[in-house]
Design brief:
Mean pLDDT: 75
Number of helices: 5
Low-confidence stretches: none
Helix content: 40-55%
Strand content: under 5%
Shape: flat
Structural class: mainly alpha
Distance between the termini: 32 Å
Order of helices and strands: HEHHEHH
Strand order of the largest sheet: 1-2
Radius of gyration: 18 Å
Number of strands: 2
Length: 97
């Protein structure tokens, strides 16, 4: 998986894994949209992976929740300074949020 592949390219001393749980740049509707779309995408990809593994006798080992684990901490909160931007967010112009 991509998450594990990237980690295998570096020694632990060469990287630090952090979740960016506060979004300071985007308005609330963008953050909410991203939280929903990436959470749902991870769930659907995990289900697809599990179905494909079940259908194939060629793969050994466990792939339980690998995708969901990689995306487990993607949710972000909206910075207080961006809560007021909801009215002027481009989402309103395109009918999102």
């Amino acid at each position: 998986m991509l998450n594990e592949g990237v980690q295998s390219l570096f020694r632990p001393s060469q990287y630090s894994e952090r979740s960016m749980n506060m979004n300071y740049r985007s308005c609330a509707c963008i953050v909410e949209f991203n939280n929903r779309i990436f959470g749902e995408a991870a769930r659907l990809l995990q289900q697809k992976l599990e179905r494909e593994i079940e259908e194939s006798a060629l793969v050994e080992g466990s792939f339980d929740v690998k995708i969901e684990k990689a995306y487990a901490d993607i949710g972000q909160r909206v910075a207080d300074s961006n809560l007021l931007r909801r009215r002027s967010c481009f989402c309103n112009d395109v009918g999102i949020g």
